[in-house]
Amino acid sequence: MTNQTGGLSDPKFLTIAEVATMMRVSKMTVYRLVHSGELPAVRVGRSFRVTEDDVNDYLRKSFYDVG
């Protein structure tokens, strides 16, 4: 049986509230990241969904060395 999602390995989609909890920021901060294009999201009806991998990639890229 082949994967019909075009090679995607069943990504886990998170709501804006779940992303905010994961990142420990407000939902408004997550909405700003989505609307600015910094955090990729998919629109489902009137809400957004963000893949867990995209959240992890964003956080990984946001780290910086101090000193």
Mean pLDDT: 89
Question: What would the principal axes of the Cα set say about the shape?
Answer: globular
Rounded radius of gyration (Å): 14 Å
Write the H/E string, N to C: EHHEEH
* Strand arrangement, major sheet: 1-3-2
Largest sheet: 3 strands, antiparallel
Note the gap between the termini.
Answer: 52 Å
Structural class: alpha+beta
Strand content: 15-25%
Task: Describe the protein in words.
The protein is an alpha+beta fold. The protein has a domain at 18-62. The protein contains 3 helices and 3 strands; from the N terminus they run βααββα. A 3-stranded antiparallel beta sheet has the order 1-3-2. The chain starts with 12 loop residues before the first strand and ends in a 5-residue tail after the last helix.
List the helices and strands and how they pair.
Elements: E1 13-15, H1 16-23, H2 27-36, E2 42-44, E3 47-51, H3 52-62
Antiparallel strand pairs: 1-3, 2-3
Helix pairs in contact: 1-2
Keywords, separated by commas or semicolons:
67 residues, 3 helices, globular
In short:
By secondary structure, the protein is of the alpha+beta class. It has 3 helices and 3 strands.
